[in-house]
Amino acid sequence: MNKKFYITTAIPYVNAAPHIGFALEMIQTDTLARYHRLLKEDVYFLTGSDENSLKNVQAAEEKKIPVAKLVKQNSDKFYQLKSVLNLSFNDFIRTTEERHTQGVQTFWKTCQKEDIYKKKYKGLYCIGCETFYTEKDLIDGRCPEHKTKPEIIEEENYFFRLSKYQSWLEKLITKDQLRIIPKIRKNEILAFIQRGLEDFSISRSVKRAHGWGIPVPDDNQQIIYVWFDALTNYITALDWQNNGSLFQKYWPADVHMIGKGISRFHTIYWPAMLKSVGVSLPKEVFIHGYITINGEKISKSLGNIIDPFEMVKKYGIDPIRYYLLKEIPAYNDGDFSELRFKEVYNADLANGLGNLVARVAKLCETANFKPKNLSNSNYTGLDKFLNEYRFDEALKFIWEKISEADHYLDDNKPWLLNGNELSKILQNLVQKVQEITNLLTPFLPETAEKILKQFQGPKIKAENPLFPRIK
Ligand SMILES: [Zn+2]
């Protein structure tokens, strides 16, 4: 039986259409899914939409449309990223679906009895984050993520006994039984755990939730906290609630791909919740950074949201995939600017890859050359980068091969040769292009397919440039 590989993205709030920051996570995840499929693993790639958030209710109220309508509209836009960004996900779960609702309620009921209790609570709540903050978490009295003042909220809620899991979590993460990549994030999480974990509220009054969300089992006055609900998507989508075959086959997750703003939920709450219900834990959590736009945080109020739909229309899918994977450092924040995008496009895609492919194809066409015994499906060298989620380094490694091939071409001057000498050089060049193309497949699938077609036919012909230069 082939090795299985289960990979997930976070499920975004659908209070607005997707922006380029989420495109990054989707493309990173898609690249890994494609890579593991090339290794003949049995891959399951899950994404979806988080629809039970209070933010969705507020967005719908602003637009004066029913919440269900708003979440459907925006969820559809996230789903469309599949074709827009050429994503290969296997399933897309909406948390308003019946399968999820049922799963969450089963999850709640399966938690150890002593882990869920009711208490009166007063706290500072950021709706943007859907989380309570303590005074010490705030910066100048404001949410560190949203820079807004949290609301003071007092009500009786259900709580999850997270404090019970403190030393267990500390050991789990220290020993990499739950591996957090990169290390800097692992250390942040460990420091957070060591400051002491408090029980967290896992329900809201129906009134505060505006009646939207999944009801607490056997209590129609309370709605399940949106994070407690959303996190379980990773198993409800596999039909855990019925011990379904997908769950048996694919769980535990090999990796959850997430952004740094939600690392606590995934590396502290989620493992503790799973432990409580007796489900095995995910193996790894990869935490990517944020994208800034021209050096500024992406925000609606700054009006600097970059629409992935428009970018793809303008420049094509693979140039966007390339920029996000290569120019955004895998372990850090990175910047997107259209100026830099054009520079990178011209240097690496039009000149680097595109130019090499065009030169080799033209030489083969002129010489009427037919390559033989091409090596297929060799992905050697990518493992050490992709096992560590170094998408940027992996692409640098491939681009070194492109420049080596360029040098080989320039040094051997095949245009001055003929006969066996020419054939030998062309055979080597075609092999190099083939190797580069294989390595590129998980990153730039459409481009790789085009190049393979061009070089696999009975006759190699010059074609239109893969990446016409942008002025
Ligand atoms: Zn916030």
What does the secondary structure layout of this molecule look like, with pairings?
Elements: E1 4-9, H1 20-38, E2 42-49, H2 54-63, H3 67-84, E3 91-94, H4 98-110, E4 116-126, E5 131-133, E6 151-160, H5 166-174, E7 179-181, H6 183-194, E8 200-201, E9 203-205, E10 215-216, E11 219-224, H7 226-231, H8 233-236, H9 245-250, E12 255-259, H10 263-277, E13 284-288, E14 291-293, E15 296-297, H11 308-315, H12 317-327, E16 334-336, H13 338-367, H14 383-386, H15 391-412, H16 419-440, H17 445-456
Parallel strand pairs: 1-2, 1-12, 2-3, 7-13, 12-13, 14-16
Antiparallel strand pairs: 4-5, 4-6, 6-8, 9-11, 10-11, 14-15
Bound molecules: zinc ion (ZN).
Describe this structure as you would to a colleague.
The chain has helices at residues 20-38, 54-63, 67-84, 98-110, 166-174, 183-194, 226-231, 233-236, 245-250, 263-277, 308-315, 317-327, 338-367, 383-386, 391-412, 419-440, 445-456; strands at 4-9, 42-49, 91-94, 116-126, 131-133, 151-160, 179-181, 200-201, 203-205, 215-216, 219-224, 255-259, 284-288, 291-293, 296-297, 334-336. By secondary structure, it is α/β, with parallel strands linked by helices. A six-stranded parallel sheet has the order 3-2-1-12-13-7, sandwiched between helices. It has a four-stranded antiparallel sheet with strand order 5-4-6-8, with no helix packed on it. It has a three-stranded antiparallel sheet with strand order 9-11-10. A hairpin with a 2-residue loop joins strand 10 and strand 11. Helix 5 runs antiparallel to helix 6 (183-194), helix 11 (308-315) crosses helix 12 and helix 15 (391-412) runs antiparallel to helix 16. The N and C termini lie far apart (51 Å). The mean pLDDT is 94. The chain binds zinc ion. Zinc ion (ZN) binds at residues 126, 128-129, 143, 145-146.
